[in-house]
Amino acid sequence: MSYLNHITSPTLLIDEQICRKNLQKMAEKAKRNGMKLVPHFKTAQSHVIGEWAKDYGIKEITVSSIKMAEYFCGHGWENIHIAFPFNPLEAKRLNRLAKNQSLSVQLINETTTQTLVDALENPVGFFIEIDAGYGRTGVQFSDFGKMEAILRTAKKSDKLKFRGFYLHAGHTYYEKDKEAVYDQTRAALGMLKAKYRSEYPNLITRTGDTPGCAVMENFGDIDEMGPGNFVFFDMMQVALGSCTREEVAVALAVPVVDIQKERGEILVHGGGVHLSKDYLPGPDGGKNFGEVVFLTENGWTIPKERSYLKSISQEHGLIKASSELLKRVKIGDLLGILPIHSCMTADCMESYMSIGGEVIDHAEGARQG
Question: How far lies 301's CA from each of 23, 29, 46, 244, 333, in Å?
């Protein structure tokens, strides 16, 4: 029986073949550049997809919270890195988790470092997060006083081990000149490695944004890459030039509940609680909340004529339909929506269905179960 016969309400589909190709392509790029790939699993948040990643030599992962780290513990990862400025209120929780799992965290100030010095009874690694122009978080790449205060404080404990510097070049999401952004990234991490490697000969440098990791070929002497969204990609990444529509590995299946041919609109069951409310500017100056694809027995196909979600509310989605779509669709059919932001869509949906009709786990769904 086709997977389509199992769907009666919004369902997040995953194409394993596309996902595996994305994993393989990034793993090959990392190897080609002499780097280790440590993907950020805030996008997939799945044990099953984690096992797919292991097939491409991936042994360590990154997560965005200690809650997510807990979910992935005990599944054979050599290390799990929590890529968020560490929350000192979770120090005891981190210590308990570190008893049985190799972990690392990100530090950006002396106060949190001291909290870990006082709390840790089990070894934990740490990266100092560096800001080289993004402005969201991190120590300014030239603020050696703050870096050395963190390192000095960490030395008070034999449980807190310095691993290196982490830089998320998030401005590749809005800066057109990605090469210029990576000039900053390479320069900042290269300078820090040169300055500190005599004292810390094994220090690692890592960068982690999907737009940069997807298109750049010159990473200088950066040791590791940790992108996340590349596992699925999405329409935002298509717009940024990181991938093609054909490389997007997830699509939200939505039931058609009404058709207004005179207006060129199709109403579907699929809204903000399924896709989130991220959008791109539409071709007519409006908003685009997702691109329509045709679902097939083997996945989905890209229409010749473009249709997109022009508006969404909590449960409703209104499609601006092409003439091709209006001719093919009827009430009760299923359509696919390529999401604008796949990380948020996956988090909203809390599970996946494979093209073979199998349910695939997601961390949020597992916590509910």
Answer: 21, 27, 25, 13, 15
Other CB atoms within 10 A of residue 352 CB:
25
User: Is 20 a member of any domain?
Assistant: no
18 is a domain residue: no
Looking at the chain, list the stretches that DSSP marks H as alpha helix, in order from N- to C-terminal side.
16-32, 47-54, 66-72, 91-97, 110-119, 144-154, 178-196, 210-215, 235-240, 272-275, 323-328, 342-349, 363-368
Could you tell me the sign of the dihedral formed by the alpha carbons of 231, 237, 240, 242, in that order? Answer: positive
Both tokens of 117, joined, read 């010095």
pTM: 0.95
pLDDT tens string 3-53: 899 899 999 999 999 999 999 999 999 999 999 999 999 999 999 999 999
Tokens of 239: 């717009």
Pair of tokens at residue 31: 């190897």
Q: What is the domain-level CATH number for residue 343?
A: 2.40.37.20
Query: CB under 8 Å to 311, separation ≥6 — which residues?
Result: 286, 287, 289, 317, 318
Separation of CA 310 from chain center: 25
Q: What is the DSSP letter of 73?
A: T
Domains held by the chain: number: 2
Report how far residue 311's alpha carbon sits from residue 297's, in angstroms, rounded to the nearest whole number: 28
Q: Within the chain, which residues score under 50 in pLDDT?
A: 369
Q: What is the dihedral of CA 97, 99, 102, 103, to 10 degrees?
A: 40
Residue 27 maps to a domain: no
Helical (H) or strand (E) element with 233: none
